[in-house]
Amino acid sequence: MNKSSLLLLLLWLAVTGTLICVLVESRFMVYNTTSGVDPCKLNVHLVPHTHNDVGWLKTIDQYYIGSNNSIQGACVANILDSLVPALVADKNRKFIYVEQAFFQRWWREQSESVQDIVKQLVRSGQLEFINGGMCMHDEAATHYIDMIDQTTRGHRFILDTFGVGFDSLYYGRIDYQDRAMRKEQKSLEVVWRGSKSLGSSAQIFAGAFPENYNPPNGFSYEVNDDSPTVQDDINLFGYNVQERVESFVATAVSQANITRTNHLMWTMGTDFNYQYAHTWFKQMDKLIHYVNEDGRVNALYSTPSIYTDAKHAAKEAWPLKTEDFFPYAEYENAYYTGYFTSRPALKGYVRTMSGYYLAARQLEFFRGRNDVGPNTESLGVALAIAQHHDAVSGTEKQHVADDYTKRLSLGYNEAEVLVSTSLACLAESIEYKQCGSPSTRLQQCPLLNISYCPPSEADLSQGKTLAVVVYNSLGWKRRDLIRIPVKMEDISVQDDEGREVEFQLVPITDAYLRLRSYHAKVYLGNTVNDEPKYWLFFPVSVPPLGFSMYFISAAKGDAGSAKSRVDTFQRGDKSTIDIGQGNIVITFSSEKSGITHYRDRKNMVTEPIAQSYSFYTSFNGTDKDRRVSSAYIFRPSHLYSIIPEGKIPPTIVRGPLVEEVHQQISSWIYQIMRVGREKEHVEVEFIVGPIPADDSIGKEVVTQFTTSLETNKTFYTDSNGRDFLKRVRNHRGDWDLKVDQPVACNYYPINLGIFLEDREKEFSVLVDRSVGGSSLHDGQAELMLHRRQFNDGGLDEALNETVCASDKCKGLIIQGKYHFRFDRRGEGAKWRRSFGQEIYSPLLLAFAEQDGDHWRSTSRTTFSGIDSSYILPENVAVITLQELIDKSVLIRLAHLYEVGEDKDLSITASVELRKLFPGKKVGKVIEMSLSANQERSEMERKRLVWQAQGVESEEHKVSRGGPVDPLKLVVDIAPMEIRTFIVQFDNQREQ
Amino acid sequence: MNKSSLLLLLLWLAVTGTLICVLVESRFMVYNTTSGVDPCKLNVHLVPHTHNDVGWLKTIDQYYIGSNNSIQGACVANILDSLVPALVADKNRKFIYVEQAFFQRWWREQSESVQDIVKQLVRSGQLEFINGGMCMHDEAATHYIDMIDQTTRGHRFILDTFGVGFDSLYYGRIDYQDRAMRKEQKSLEVVWRGSKSLGSSAQIFAGAFPENYNPPNGFSYEVNDDSPTVQDDINLFGYNVQERVESFVATAVSQANITRTNHLMWTMGTDFNYQYAHTWFKQMDKLIHYVNEDGRVNALYSTPSIYTDAKHAAKEAWPLKTEDFFPYAEYENAYYTGYFTSRPALKGYVRTMSGYYLAARQLEFFRGRNDVGPNTESLGVALAIAQHHDAVSGTEKQHVADDYTKRLSLGYNEAEVLVSTSLACLAESIEYKQCGSPSTRLQQCPLLNISYCPPSEADLSQGKTLAVVVYNSLGWKRRDLIRIPVKMEDISVQDDEGREVEFQLVPITDAYLRLRSYHAKVYLGNTVNDEPKYWLFFPVSVPPLGFSMYFISAAKGDAGSAKSRVDTFQRGDKSTIDIGQGNIVITFSSEKSGITHYRDRKNMVTEPIAQSYSFYTSFNGTDKDRRVSSAYIFRPSHLYSIIPEGKIPPTIVRGPLVEEVHQQISSWIYQIMRVGREKEHVEVEFIVGPIPADDSIGKEVVTQFTTSLETNKTFYTDSNGRDFLKRVRNHRGDWDLKVDQPVACNYYPINLGIFLEDREKEFSVLVDRSVGGSSLHDGQAELMLHRRQFNDGGLDEALNETVCASDKCKGLIIQGKYHFRFDRRGEGAKWRRSFGQEIYSPLLLAFAEQDGDHWRSTSRTTFSGIDSSYILPENVAVITLQELIDKSVLIRLAHLYEVGEDKDLSITASVELRKLFPGKKVGKVIEMSLSANQERSEMERKRLVWQAQGVESEEHKVSRGGPVDPLKLVVDIAPMEIRTFIVQFDNQREQ
Question: Does the distance separating the beta carbons of B4 and A805 come in below 8 Å?
Fold first, then answer.
């Protein structure tokens, strides 16, 4: 008798005129999806897409194969498997795909016939690759060289497989306040000039979406999604065509109110959507059919390219956007600035591998690429994947971070063999291609950072000699100071011509021996008891893209002069002491437990400076506010200074090459401040961790520099290691900032360095990996070195990294460096750019134990890959030198300076290409787009010209290097320009 | 430096020999899925399947279209959409599909080319229909006629569409204790003889699965499922082929330990699985390939048919299973016996519609089927769907129950028009096919149960006559008592020949007027003020499959003699009183507030009897034990007797035709006990509800009969209205029952009735709908009439039915009847079977208001659809008489008695088919299988013969009716036999 609701339904049926009728005839529908752009209507571009994280909560392979679904139900193979028939079913349907790391995995599992179908889908434009990199790389924590490399890897695959190159469009998340402003001002879509130096020559049309990259609310059609499906079968209950059309039109009109021109884009899909592509297309087919039947707006299948062409055709002028979109707050109090430092060990490892990969590819080219044997491919792939915005960013689950590390380590292991072999071949002067296995086995020391290096620790007392091969991947001749652990103290160091080389022995302190023994146990699984006693320092000189050799052997005499003098401050000592015998001298105060002054004898500069450590405690969240500090978010509660412990007074190490101050800042922070005799800066080496966890309160550990510079809220941080962007505390260039988080909202990503300037001086700090940093007070600079959290902030686990040995785990310890220096105003760029490049590309060391003099007498002890008469201009770096599969060479030359950054070096430089390939006959040289997937001329020809609002002319004339004369082969490179070439050699095919 | 887990992974890699290698060549795999049965190995039959509830948490249309996914993510269209390409992709893949209600929805949306592909898939055996009914009907709460009808509807569609008929296999859930026993004894698979009468002639091979109908743990591959996928790409991490093969083999071997023969079935799928069929087949392809490569067991794509053939080929003898599998406990304390009564209003409505549908199809045939106009199709479809195991069972969400009700109501509305038209045409003797719109509009009264019937309540004072057409859908001539509400008291009733008919007027009590006014408001949306005063009772006599007419008009004289005498017991009155002037007399005691004795004057039987109401409070659950009373589960805490309220003493109604005792048992229970002068039983009419909700404790309302029968724990309940099965309290025939729930574990579904017997007597109770019942003490019988719950038991809502008017809701009120009677031992079957059939098929009433004598003089006032000289044998019912699309007729004849049930009627009966079709020339008569999808001879030929263990010969010789002589056309029907024929008429095509 319970018919109450029945009656209501019946009445409703009577009203809507819907009545059931059973056993009706076939009602097979063909939906009309042929619509293109309609210039007279509001066009709703439906852009079917998915976003596939190349690792996040699951590893890349788990995402691909669809395993570990209890963590997250996601299988990329499903997406691509289901996509093909869905596109084939209707030629009007379109799709864009991004992450080539996944696409490549899928591609190689397909039959030839499926591959042929996909090729046809790409040719017809139904399937379009967007971004085209191996992953959608992070924007903050990535170095520009890595970004280029990972994009090139994806683009070259697409070029090789589908024969197409393409331009890129970028869309990003933006700050919630910025978004609100842009909605109001219809300025979500802009002309973006990211580089001041390159100006309009590097501008792109860019857009942020009203609702991130999701579909409008109610139009999401993933399997089992709860958006209302279009029910157009009149024979069933719930017929809702009119209702869905109304909702579509209303949503479009509302979006039109915040958008210029009569073109809107709906991003139809989100993370890991299209597990069964049919579910989306079935609904979009219906929407397009019925919405266009309705006629008020025009719905169409589209892609970003079609959309952009339509925007361009509107001939509008667009708001101009300069600089970047950092930092990003998702909501109030939710600044995504914690991840600039999250997982500092992974960030450091990525950076180390990035420099190594650059060097390894050079050596791979010098020896000749081996497609099957050990090569740099797996390292390149691992690095490419590690650029993902949940990889190097530190915003992935722990097991996924471990996966990236594992891949890098495996890639390194393979590249290490290649590097050793290549160096040995070059040393033994074995001809190219014949060098399968050289007689000498060179060893490298990837664990040098924990002072573990078995070859250098060897006992040389039985007439053995340790040959040290020092490789320089920069295009300049280079002098540097080597540091390796040794057990013996009675040794001598000789150069390749047998000349004695000055050296210094610095005792390895307990802090390092603890680091060594614990992590050797962790990495190697066994205990390493036989500890080295000293760090051996000695200067080296190495030609560009080449190596020098040094030889270490037992010495009979007393090494007394080489041994450092070690003094310990006495308790209560209030004296100060100067450190450094070269140009740079620092004054250290025992009373203040730190540096007080910096002096540059050459520049006659003396500056007061203080340096200290602190930590922020993390907001722990309340029942109502779960926006806690996490892998993503930085949300501090309080700042606590760490006062160096009086119990262990600082130690001073003195000697001919370096002088150091060692400080146990706290039980979990150890620091060495080092001044090298020939160095023009101060080097700070730190060991931070384990961050105390006993109170279960998250902590963000920072180091702060206090100077007397009058900086007026202003500081500069680099953008991905490239342009330095001006930052103003509590200020945004694009909107009036409401300051809810006065610390977190001023944090910026730092990949190269941060600097301050006032009317007279500059103060610069350079980093060895990606970190977050800021200047929270005038004259001050701050770097966040490490962080540890205990609240889940979206990963279903806290960012609480631990390291385990023998089943016992302790918090992660970070070892690293930063460097600082003062300059006169306008003169700091030279150090930042040149030394910055040295930090990125440290000297690569390889070791071989020899009987006596054998190697020195039989091998080539010095080598340069470029013409011996040539070095690269000081303002240019070779950021890629890589042999491709077809034996041609990919070379990228990067100008290191911005316009106006240095009075001498911010000028166009010239590189003689021929000199870079001595002994080879350079044939054809083709200038390519940055990612080397199309000729530059073709790209320039296709490039859309966008008009920016209110910009009459450029502030300065943008200069770009012109075409390369094929006879002269001299390449001009303007400030901040990067030029990419493929060089073919005349005998290339025969090689 | 966080490389701890890296190292572990590397070590692990070294152990398993898995190493990454990038940029490898294509590895397109072709999996070998060709395997068939291997007689020498353990065969694992992978049976891909899905189970699609035809309504449960969502309505059938919501499930089909995939709407309302926030309740449950499920879209049947996805399943069928994705299935076709998955089967086409590999001809070895197989799939079984069940629910034709869904399949038909999908089928009519397909293009011809897809339909052709599906036809080919069915022909080749890749796609097999199993069960083949519109739904997978419930086993407990369904009447056998409905089960047959819904299965026929599905099977006929398959026959018409694919030209195939098929046999059915059934597999069910079974009690957890039973399952444990059967695992141990390898008796999950049995030869099942459900009917004692039909014995081996109706046995089937049946099996329960070790783990319900799900795949083994770890082998479930729904989109985003978390079973481990088979990762066989050596280039990715997580390669697990060997591990998955080991798991497969181990699972198979473990299952083999509880299974006879070397054939196992794995049911690969579960509820609403195969949303993207590809995900399953991709994994099963790999499993079959690698498991067979391994070779220890043989994996194959299979179907229940292939599996059953393999089982049969093993020539084993199987354990014999008789009777049914009720009741079912999923776990300890979790008896699925609540649903036997859940939603008693829906159960009542289904039963009412079932009987109406049977009658309507007869009238549709008599008039001639109209394919486009009003017909019985939508009622048939609605009824078919309502048989689903989450429909009539009452285990669906409220909005879904409303959907079933709505469909029944819409179907009824259409059938009502057909019935009225058909009766009018027959009355007006208009020729077949010419009768589009007869001049008389007959009205029916579906709300008679709340005493609402506008035509009978009409004012006849202005010379109007109310013609009452009384249709009898039984094959026997029938005398019965009609009851309709009237406003006037001065009336006369005449039969078709103008003879006065004795009648009685019984005042309509307040309890009914309240029911009427509230529910009229609920159903009709407006208040019905003008109340009828009396129930008019009068006896009718109607020919088989035909009607009689009666005429009611205003009478001048005094109707005093027809008015009932009403006496009210005085408070404190301790007298007893006898009710009934016919054979049956009951003694009612005011002191005991109820019946004390039952007397049958004809049989000279006098029996003490008590009848009362009680309720169980429901177990509310604890933190640790959430197995609460719910839509499914019956789990009582305490039993409370309901002592009739002294305030309102019982009322006695006396008159010539019926005598009644009215009792207000409590504020929410009202009862009328009625004895008709010509009736051979006591009728009890009850109004129960709203069940009090103020204490938020669930309640299960029961009525109990206490007799003196010495029943020794034994009682009998019917199986779907067909065989009566012996039940023994706290006992199972198949295993030693551990009694955890002494009440719930003894509850059984009742569709027809329950009876008790001892050495001398029988006591029977017949019901008007499906209910739960038991005998919890010797001599006692109990029916659960209504229940209301406040805890969620799996539906995300409680079974708390309410009825709302003007936005105010109150608990559901149930109005219904049951009947009881005593017999001498061995003589009760006749009443149970004959009167049971009358309950199922009540007389159908239609009304027409006429001017004076007009209709009686111009129309056919009596009609029978069969030969006027013929009536059906007393032990046979026409359970189907239906015109098919091709104008042939489907007729089903059911023997109503079991072997040995009645000394006279448990014998083979004969029906002269020709007599059932007077005036038509019977052409070809084809005996069909029960569901009419293949000829019976063909079915018998294909039927597998199974050997049951320990059964030498049948207990009694099974008799079945033999072939029908095409000239004589006399059908013999043995006890419990149902025979199905398609009758073609010689001029059929021309009609």
Answer: yes
pLDDT of amino acid A990: 40
Contact A3 B803 (CB under 8 A): yes
SS (H, E, C) B147-160: HHHHHHHHHHHHHH
Q: Which residues of A touch B226 (CB under 8 A)?
A: 68-70, 73
Chain A CB contacts of B449 under 8 Å are 1
**Which chain B residues are Cβ-neighbours of A160 within 8 angstroms?**
none
Q: Do B2 and A282 touch (CB under 8 A)?
A: no
CB contacts under 8 A, B 868-927 vs A, are none
Is the Cβ of A739 closer than 8 Å to some Cβ of chain B? no
Query: Does any CB of chain A come closer than 8 Å to the CB of residue B81?
Result: yes
Please tell me which residue of chain B has the smallest CA distance to A814: B1
The confidence band for A201, taking pLDDT boundaries of 50, 70 and 90, is confident
Tell me the pLDDT of chain A averaged across its residues. 90
Average the pLDDT over A833-839 and give the result.
97
What pLDDT is stored for residue B430 in this prediction? 67
Distance from the Cα of B900 to chain A's closest Cα (Å) equals 39
Distance (Å) from the C-alpha of residue B584 to the closest C-alpha of chain A?
31
Terminal-residue alpha carbon distance, chain A:
91
Q: Does residue B15 sit at the A interface (CB-CB below 8 Å)?
A: no
Contact A66, A272 (CB under 8 A): no
Smallest Cα distance from A883 to chain B, Å: 16
- Is B579:B588 a contact under the CB 8 Å cutoff? yes
Question: Which residues, including other chains, have CB under 8 Å from residue B32's CB and lie 6 or more apart?
Answer: B288, B289, B292, B293
> Which pLDDT belongs to residue A494?
94
Window from A108-117, A405-414, B212-221, B825-834 with minimum mean pLDDT: B212-221
Q: How far apart are CA B766 and CA B751, in angstroms?
A: 8
pLDDT at B300 over 60: yes
Structure tokens at A508: 């390895």
Segments in A295-343 forming alpha helices (H): 304-313
Q: What is the pLDDT of residues B112-128, one digit of tens each?
A: 999 999 999 999 999 99
Record: contact B67-A229, CB cut-off 8 A: yes
Q: At what angle do helices B76-89 and A277-294 cross, to 10 degrees?
A: 120
Task: Tell me the C-alpha distance between A32 and A168, whole Å.
Answer: 31
- Burial bucket for residue B818 (CB in 10 Å: 0-12, 13-18, 19+): buried
Please report residues of A whose CB lies closer than 8 A to that of B279.
66, 75, 78
Asked if residues B926 and B935 have their Cβ atoms less than 8 Å apart, the reply is yes
Q: What residues 85-124 of chain B have any CB closer than 8 A to a CB of chain A?
A: 85, 105, 108-112
pLDDT digit string (tens) for B413-444?
Answer: 999 999 999 999 999 876 655 666 778 889 99
Of A236, A406, A815, the CB nearest to B1: A815
DSSP line for A471-497: EE-SSS-EEEEEEEEES-SSEEEEETT
Residues B299-331 as b or e (16 or more Cβ within 10 Å = b): bbbbbbbbbbebbeeeeeebbbbbbbbbbbbbe
B406 touches chain A (CB under 8 A): yes
HEC secondary structure over A913-955:
HHHHCCCCCEEEEEEECCCCCCEHHHHHHHCCCCEECCCCCCC
Give the model confidence (pLDDT) of A392-441 as tens digits. Answer: 999 999 999 999 999 999 999 999 999 999 999 999 876 655 666 778 88
Cross-chain Cβ contact A410/B20 below 8 Å:
yes
Residues whose CB is less than 8 angstroms from the CB of residue A421 and which lie 6 or more positions away in sequence, other chains included: A367, A374, A435, A437, A438, A442
Alpha-carbon separation of residue A938 from A127, A552, A845, A929, A934 (angstroms) = 22, 54, 42, 9, 7
d(CA A715, CA A781): 8
Give the residue on A whose Cα is nearest the Cα of B107.
A26
- Residue B965 DSSP code: P
